Amino acid sequence: MITVIGGSTNQAHYANSMAVFVCQKFQIEPTIEIKFKLMSTDVNYGYCVFLDNNEYDVTIKRTLKMREMLQTLAHELVHVKQYYKGELTQSNDINIEYWDRPSEIEAHGREIGLFLQWCEHEKVGHLAWTRHPNY
Q1: For residue range 85-132, what is the model confidence (pLDDT) as tens digits?
Q2: How many C-beta neighbours within 10 Å does residue 71 have?
Q3: Do the Cβ atoms of 107 and 44 come closer than 8 Å?
Q4: Average pLDDT, the chain
Q5: Is the pLDDT of residue 49 over 70?
Q6: Phi-psi category of residue 11: left, alpha or beta, with phi > 0 → left and psi -120 to 50 → alpha
Q7: Looking only at Cα atoms, what is the longest distance across the chain?
Q8: Residues linked to residue 33 through DSSP beta bridges, in sequence order
Q9: What is the pLDDT of residue 133?
Q10: Rounded to an integer, what distance in angstroms lies between the CA atom of residue 103 and that of residue 59?
Q11: Fold entry, domain 2-128
């Protein structure tokens, strides 16, 4: 089950669509609550927190442009997959520098590809914001 809280109507619609797409691609069935928050002073764009029983909180900075928001969501959904499949725990990356963490290498490496595949799937590639990160 996927729940989206906050954000604009478009953000909520596209976030739900992206989450469904990525979960189907990874063949996982987690319970995810996606929250859009202001996060004005936070340098991070998003977070994924494993709760328990395959439940996850994903927080996304609400002020991101649409493409940036969806790529960030795709990144965080890779972390959901990693937790769900036992590839990541809350502490197994803690003593490794951020950019050297296997979980981050995978998430950063897959976020754009997942976004582009989602665009093809949803037939939204003609929209300007899908081609230009600054929209």
Answers
A1: 999 876 777 788 888 888 999 999 999 999 999 999 999 999 999 987
A2: 25
A3: no
A4: 92
A5: yes
A6: alpha
A7: 43
A8: 3, 57
A9: 64
A10: 18
A11: Collagenase (Catalytic Domain) (3.40.390)
